[in-house]
Amino acid sequence: MGPRIGPAGEGPQVPDKETKATMGTENTPGGKASPDPQDVRPSVFHNIKLFVLCHSLLQLAQLMISGYLKSSISTVEKRFGLSSQTSGLLVSFNEVGNTALIVFVSYFGSRVHRPRMIGYGAILVALAGLLMTLPHFISEPYRYDNTSPEDMPQDFKASLCLPTTSAPARTHSNGNCSSYTETQHLSVVGIMFVAQTLLGVGGVPIQPFGISYIDDFAHNSNSPLYLGILFAVTMMGPGLAFGLGSLMLRLYVDINQMPEGGISLTIKDPRWVGAWWLGFLIAAGSVALAAIPYFFFPKEMPKEKHELQFRRKVLAVTDSPARKDKDSPSKQSPGESTKKQDGLVQIAPNLTVIQFIKVFPRVLLQTLRHPIFLLVVLSQVCLSSMAAGMATFLPKFLERQFSITASYANLLIGCLSFPSVIVGIVVGGVLVKRLHLGPVGCGALCLLGMLLCLFFSLPLFFIGCPSHQIAGITHQTSAQPRPELFPSCMEVCSCPSDGFNPVCDPSTRVEYITPCHAGCSSQVVQDALDKSQVFYTNCSCVAEGNPVMAGSCDSTCSHLVVPFLLLVSLGSALACLTHTPSFMLILRGVKKEDKTLAVGIQFMFLRILAWMPSPVIHGSAIDTTCVHWALSCGRRAVCRYYNNDLLRNRFIGLQFFFKTGSVICFALVLAILRQQDKEARTKESRSSPAVAQQLLVSGPGKKPEDSRV
């Protein structure tokens, strides 16, 4: 190509590629590039539209990988023996790394190469996703029946009622416990916690740096449209995560190392564990591919000079004289806004890190003194707590409450719940726009949406399935007297205490945790056209010695899952109506120079008070409803059976509690706004006669200095 030759007189002071691209666009009339031959063919990456496309795909992939764990939370619990409280803490660690660094984004934002920082963060997210799959590869193959550690296809025979002489051989599962086993379990869980923390750290620069980059270099009229496209595409990420989980959990967990002879489990078996790790591999690969273009975008690019043509046509049709009158003051004083931009966000680049840390608490307390801001943030904390608990444990709740598979639960949530969230956010924004809602109108819309959400949550307490009758675990009701569920007939069988191979007596709909607990001594396999059904016979603990079927008893009310989820989706849409109006209340409730900082403080509080503790709170509440725990080396592992009525009341009750808190906060916000509006009107009415008298005294040619109210 040869050396670059610039205009005469420049000498060696040739600007770099990025600066020259900016100068060539901004320093010429009309924003047209100079006819320099170096600028005739600008780089394809000096295009803000391409950046919007790349950033939409990246945030879509990032939310997909961060939401994927929620879609497979019950599967991870079964695979590694975790309680719901531990799995909730695992989900919360995604926010720990994010919260620890998000405060400093505003400080370093103007000093770094933002596209490259986004690329580095995305690479870290991809590596964290790969790290999440490591426990699968370093762990032993999944044994879905502890009574058969060597040959998994023999799980049915190993669960039969054997004479007491073989009792020592039936207790080996706890005998395998050693310091190595416990250390391996702790290391596997520790790896997942580290991966979740890195996942949060990697996501820190992606959204704020991307939004600020688009806002800096897009045309002022196009920036809202670009950000709207970005958020619309991004919101599909969690839905895709649950769709991906639905597909992956239909595959067996050890699909890469299947035992000889295959497995005897079906997807409906409660011991089934899907290929949870495969989704992390796919999502991590997507993030890595989406990160590549960011290493080619410049630190600064030419600011977009032209408004999008189709947007101009739409505005030409929808614009009204009122809009023009509303925009005219800003045209008359273009420098007014820049004079007021002297808040902490503007002076942050001139502060050292120590000075920034010292001044931040003072500005934080000053911002929290605004009552509207504080109450709206508290209401959003309640809503986010509700959303975090629902997103984390709703799949598991549907599995346990309605006896459906994890794959089907994820499919329903991805198809119903997340689209309703998007619809709610869009409708809320449209109502604010079309009705030209002020602060009082926004407060009223928020309160109305939450009241309707609370109303439609009441039927959820009564839509559910009763608990299964488990021999020896759940007690029979007095309304239906029947023989003792836990008879002494199985004592001669020396059944293992930690075995789990459920069977069902179809005549009485009583479930036994193993064939041994039913006193069965033989098995029969009946082959059908598409599948084989296993029966256990010679069962001494079953009435009339009837055979029992392998697997849990089918639920009689699984069909209620669809109306239940429709009500949940409707409530989610109504709650999301408050998204845009509550955000507008925050922006209008603080000073102009503090808006950016107020939004940052808002998201910091949402993470600390909602997204971090809420999954742990919901997981702890779910654990209190467990009636039978699996044991691993003497410690509680995963819960086998729940009390469905307690599970429904406590899970939905927590949701109802957070919704009630949000309603109270929005009611207080509306009361304060009405009081402020009333005081403003009173002040205006009192000042109107004085202004009119001053106009008469001053004459028709003069205007008083303070005539504007």
Brief account:
This protein has 709 residues and is mainly α. The protein has helices at 17-26, 48-71, 73-80, 84-102, 105-108, 114-138, 155-158, 167-170, 172-175, 179-202, 206-217, 223-234, 236-248, 276-291, 309-318, 321-332, 336-340, 344-347, 353-368, 371-402, 406-434, 439-457, 561-576, 579-588, 595-611, 613-623, 644-698, and strands spanning 469-470, 503-505, 510-512, 522-527, 532-537, 548-550, 626-632, 635-642.
Features:
single chain; about 700 residues; mainly alpha; Growth Hormone, Chain: A; six-stranded mixed beta sheet; two-stranded antiparallel ribbon; 27 helices; globular; membrane; transport; OATP; Kazal_dom; transmembrane
Describe what this molecule looks like in 3D.
It is a single chain. Helices cover 59% and strands 5% of the residues. The protein is mostly helical and 709 residues long. The chain has three domains: 43-142 and 184-311, MFS general substrate transporter like domains (Growth Hormone, Chain: A), CATH 1.20.1250.20; 370-460 and 557-686, Up-down Bundle (Growth Hormone, Chain: A), CATH 1.20.1250; 469-473 and 492-551, no CATH class. The strands form two sheets. It has a six-stranded mixed β-sheet, with no helix packed on it. A two-stranded antiparallel sheet has the order 7-8. Strand 2 (503-505) and strand 3 (510-512) form a beta hairpin. Helix 22 (439-457) packs antiparallel against helix 27 (644-698). The model is unreliable at 1-40, 146-155, 165-175, 317-349, 476-486 and 700-709 (pLDDT under 50).
